[in-house]
Amino acid sequence: MHIKFFGAAGEVTGSRHLLEGQTQGQHFKFVIDYGMFQGGRDANDKNLEDLPFNPAELDFVILTHAHIDHSGLLPRLTAQGFKGTIYCTPATEALLKILLLDSAHIQENDFERAERKQKLGKWRGELPTVLYSVKQATECLSQIKHYDYGQVFEPINGIQAHFRNAGHILGSAIAVIDVLEDGQSKRIVSSGDLGMYDRPLMPNPDVIESADVLLVESTYGDRLHRGLQETEDELVEVITETMKHGGNIVMPAFAVGRTQEILLLLINLVKNGRLPHLNIWVDSPMATAATHLTEKYLEDLDEEAQAIFAWYKKHSHSLDLKFVADVEESKALNRIKGGAIIISASGMCEAGRVVHHLSWNLPHSQNAIIITGFQAMGTLGRRLVDKVPMVRVMGKEVAVRASIHTIGGLSAHADQAGLLRWLKGFKKAPGKVFVIHGEENAAANFAAVIKEELQWEHVVTPQKGNLFPC
Ligand SMILES: [Zn+2]
Fold first, then answer.
1. Distance in Å, CA 406 to ligand 1 centroid
2. What are phi and psi of 282, to 5 degrees?
3. If you write DSSP's letter for every residue of 392-445 in order, what string do you get?
4. Does the pLDDT at position 378 exceed 90?
5. At what angle do helices 228-244 and 258-271 cross, to 10 degrees?
């Protein structure tokens, strides 16, 4: 058997790992995750590049979770001839229905807008790429089969697999795959993305005790996150101060995961008497859909999160939580002069309704903007974090008079200590460890830490295109 890394190797996005070999006298070929490359100038080229296999010959796909950097090219794979099954958890399937269709919509819209401009002579350069259409995304969704955590399934004769909870986002999984090779079973474990330990919303990542081949993520393999206590204290301080001065708070947040985490934190702070009655608006159709899904799959969350939700159901008067339905209602929020907490997407302030809320709230000094997630270079969110005095929002120059606060402790990814804690669950060193899903430094740093702290010998940081026997 061998493994080929053709994404998320030496970088964070584009998770795609091909496994190929023989079982029960048959040749097999499958991939773990099939994500989109995001950010950076060459992402588009990577999404379009030739594949190291014929999609029609691929037996199946094992998908760890719904994030686009793990799932986002699946519709393209289907369009290119893949006919097999995509295996994931039930909540991941539910999220994919939102995320993949949204991804296709955005691509179609961007293309149509550019084409219209081109006809008017207002578009220079190439038109944006459509990686797949809404129709192709819909077709892809019909190839999904879901299994609960712990439920064993057999994609082909000789290969058995099951999912364990990765504690990263709703439905996120660690994939455990047992391949029968020459009469012996070989276990491949892919960590997927691992969540933080002891944080609200998601449970701790499940312990896995053995693997012959281990793929482990390393997004934050070279650093430690701030503690939850500190994060809560910062939130309480900013919210209390802003409310005292009659201001509004805008919190840009990723629709899936982060929005629900923030809601839970805020409800918990009200429950514990650290914050007074709050007026919260969630203004993002995708965040609303994802929050309803979170309630539907409540049993996948940790016990504390379930208890907080249950408390809120009984004490819903303790805070006013509203989900904004349409654009008109969203615009009406602009008339609120103070006392509102608006949670809206996109997380990096590049698109979506949050842009409108920023343009209204940034020019007034009594307001506060709370940044809770990673802001990539070149985004509006990053300029706010960097405290630029004037920013361009929707084609207008806007003065930044609102206070900007970066709350660093919220992350859907385990930090170095968390990743190590998960690895310590293995009873003995896996035969081979591949450190993936991290930028060069983070992956190399974490590989060195594994060797030093755990005394594991066979630890590799693969590069894109590398192939290894395993
Ligand atoms: Zn993820």
1. 21
2. -100, 110
3. EETTEEEE--SEEEE-TT--SS-BHHHHHHHHTTSSS--SEEEEESS-HHHHHH
4. no
5. 70
pLDDT tens per residue, range 85-144? 999 999 999 999 999 999 999 899 889 989 999 999 988 888 888 999 999 999 999 999
At 123 the pLDDT is 87
pLDDT, tens digit, 9 for 90 and up, residues 387-446: 999 999 988 899 999 999 999 788 889 999 999 999 999 999 999 999 999 989 999 999
Cβ burial, residue 279 (10 Å; 0-12/13-18/19+): middle
Distance (angstroms) between ligand 1 centre and the Cα of 444 equals: 20
What is the Å distance from ligand 1's center to 169 Cα? 7
How many A from CA of 67 to the centre of ligand 1? 5
Q: How many residues does the chain have?
A: 470
The CA 194 to ligand 1 mean position distance, Å, reads 8
**Residue 78: partners with Cβ closer than 8 Å, 6 or more residues away:** 132, 136, 139, 140, 143
Ligand 1 centroid–CA 400 distance in Å is 32
Cβ contact 166:195 at 8 Å: yes
What is the Cα–Cα distance from 282 to 329, expressed in whole angstroms? Answer: 11
**Surrounding residues of ion ligand 1, Cβ less than 5 A:** 67, 193
CA neighbor of 250 nearest in space, from 143, 89, 393, 457? 393
Q: Helix or strand or coil: residue 23?
A: strand
Domains and CATH numbers, the chain: 2-223+412-469 (3.60.15.10), 228-406 (3.40.50.10890)
What are residue 187's DSSP bridge partners?
178
| C-alpha 280 to ligand 1 mean position (Å) | 26
Span from the CA of 22 to the centroid of ligand 1 (angstroms): 30
Confidence band, pLDDT 50/70/90 cuts, at residue 364:
very high
How confident is the model over 20-47, as pLDDT tens digits? 999 999 999 999 999 999 876 788 899 9
Instruction: Look at residue 67 and give its three-state secondary structure.
Output: coil
284-335 pLDDT, tens digit per residue, is 999 999 999 999 999 989 999 999 999 999 999 999 999 998 989 999 999 9
Contact indicator for 249, 239 with CB cutoff of 8 Å: yes
Task: Find the 222 Cα to ligand 1 centroid distance in Å.
Answer: 18
Distances (CA, A) of 95 to 98, 166, 192, 452: 5, 16, 16, 38
Q: Which of 63, 59, 57, 82 is nearest to 132 (CA)?
A: 82
